[in-house]
Structure formats: C-alpha cells, structure tokens
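Ticket 4471: requesting a sanity check on a complex prediction with 2-acetamido-2-deoxy-beta-D-glucopyranose. Repro inputs:
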Amino acid sequence: MSTTPIIFLFFLFLSATVSTAITTVSSDITALKSIKSGINQKTISSFTCLYSWDFTSDPCSPPHVTHFLCGLSCSGNRVTQLTLDPAGYTGTLSPLVSQLTQLITIDLSDNKFSGQIPNSLFFLPNLQTLILGSNSFSGVIPASISNLKKLQTLDISHNFISGSLPNSLTQLTELTRLDLSYNKLNGALPKLPKNIIQLALKANSLSGYLQKQAFTELTQLEVVELSENSLTGTIPGWFFLIPSLQQVNLAKNSFTGLEILKPVNSNLIAVDLGFNKISGYPPANFSTYPMLASLTLSYNKLRGRIPWEYGKTTTLSRLFLDGNFLIGLPPKDFFSGKTSLSGSLGDNCLKMCPISSGLCLKSQKPLSICKQAYRGKLKPKS
Ligand SMILES: *[C@@H]1O[C@H](CO)[C@@H](O)[C@H](O)[C@H]1NC(C)=O
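Returned structure tokens:
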C-alpha cells in the first residue's frame, strides 16, 4: 500500500537522471574510437590517457574516475579538446578526427604519429590551437589550411613536413603563432598572415630573398626565427623597421649583404646574423637602435673597422663579431669598464685586443690570412 509512492518516486528519480545525464553525440564517439584504433595498441601502456579510454562508459559524462581520465575535454555533449599525453604513441591520426566539429584544441605533441596529417583536419571550423610538434608527420601543408579561420596557434615543428608554404596562409587572420621549425619545407616565404606575433621556421630549406611583399602589414610581428635555411641576397633595411620587432635570428643562411637604416622608433632587442656570407662593413647604424642589447655578426665576411659608435651605446651588453676580417683598434669604450659588455671579437685581424678583456680571449687570425684578405694591404684608412 505504501510502496506505490516509493516506486513512483523511484521512476521520477530515474527519469530525472536520464534526462540530465550527458550523452556524447554518437559521431564524436565514433571519431574517438577511430582515433584510438589508429594507434598501435602496443604503445598504449597502462597509465596512459588512451588506456583509460574505455567505451563501455560515455566519454563526456563526468565524473572521470576510472574511464576517460585524460586526453580529452568536453563542453556539454561535444568534445572540445583533444590533448594526448606525450606517451610515445605510434600510429596515424584517423581522418575521422574531422567529425569532432566542436574541437577548439588539438595537441598531440611529443609522440610518434606518422603518415600524412589527414586533410579533413583542415576543415574543423572552430579550431584555435593545432599542436602536432615533435612527431613524425610527413606530407605537405595543404592550401585548404585557410579554412581554419579561427586558428591562433599552429605548431607542427620537429616533423617531416615537405613542400612549400601555401599562399593561402595569409588568410589565417587570427594566427599569432606559427612554428614549423625543423621540417623539410622549401621554396620562398609566402605572404604571411597579418596578425602574426611569433614566426618560427628554423632549420628548413627555405630559399630566396626576404621579400617585402611577404612582410607587408605585419604590425604585430615580434619574433622572427628563420635560422638554418638557405635564404639569400641582401638583408634589406626595411626588415628591421617592422614596428614591433624585438628578436631576429637569421643565422646560418646564405645572405651576402646587410642594409641597416636608422629607425624612428624601435623595440629591437636581439639580432643574430651569424654564419652567413655577409660582406661589407659592420653597419654603424645598429647603434641607433635604442633597445638593442644583443648583436651577433659572427662568421661572415665583414671587413674594415669596428664602428666607434658601438662603444657609445648604453644598451648593448652582448656583441659577437668574431670570425670576420675586422681591422684596426677596437673601440676603447669596450674596455673602459663603464659597460659590462660580453661577447667576442676574436678570429679577426684586430690590433691590440687586450688579452685582459674577455672579448679578446679568442686569438686573432694569422697575419698571412689577413694580408691575403686585404691583398697585402693592411692599413685601414682613418
Ligand atoms: C644609415 O641610415 C640612414 C638613414 O636611414 C641611411 O640614409 C644610411 O644610408 C644608412 N647608412 C648605411 C651605411 O647604410
């Protein structure tokens, strides 16, 4: 007699729990299952995120006490983040990843994913962060990457990506951070997205000149890391006048010339142009950059005197001019003790570089090599 209300309450409770419980949409579950099965099961050891992906329970339903402990996050019944642990997973990324249409973040970094990045990935409309760094992905960056209209961070560094950068890259207007360092990219730099802040393409095979067209409208650009490529020609003066530029690394390329203009205003702090083939004189105009703290022109073909202006800047604290053919006396101000300048002037043709100074620890070139470089004449014009 009194059981009826209890049973009634029980069913009321049951229907309430069922209606509030999250059930991940089935296309997301299918995608997650496919992603897991694309990975070599031998590399899914216990204690990894993927090990806890047990599809007898629902991926988005909290609490995640025993199943789906990590590797994904949801918003409601949709997967919004796929962030695998660096567990050394090998395998390929399932093209069904594109069914996770609410994904905002993908981070698969520090694993051993191989094969192509599925083309379908470049059609995820809400993706803001795409991090596939330190894997073994190959193939090219397709022109369809321009579909990722909301993309802010793209990091596919340390993979085997080849081909040239697509011209459609410029359409990624939200992109602020691009890191494709340590790949096999070739060809010229395309026109870059206008809101980019950090550009890193170190250790590829990029070639050609620094073209103004690639860098127009880039008012946010702060960091340029293009070292270890095959870029050529003269490093143009306008480049260092990009308004927000702070750090530039163009070391280990094949640049042959350098033009430095006086800035109106500049935030430039560090410049590394070492290990190129730059000839001519060390540019005195560097001393007009009000924030410049670190300047490296090591191992080029610079000749003539070290500009006395370098000794007058108060900001410069690191100066590497070693491995050139510089002559004459180094600026006295370097050794006055007023500034704490570190760096190297070694392996040049300088006279009287005081051994007591750390700047002169590395010895100068033999006179014969210096005379040869100056065709016998070693008297600098004063
Ligand atoms: C130094 O900068 C000025 C003004 O920008 C420029 O006219 C001049 O040619 C530069 N000097 C050198 C040696 O490049």
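Notes from triage: The CA atoms of residues 329 and 351 lie 5 Å apart. Leaving this open until the requester confirms.
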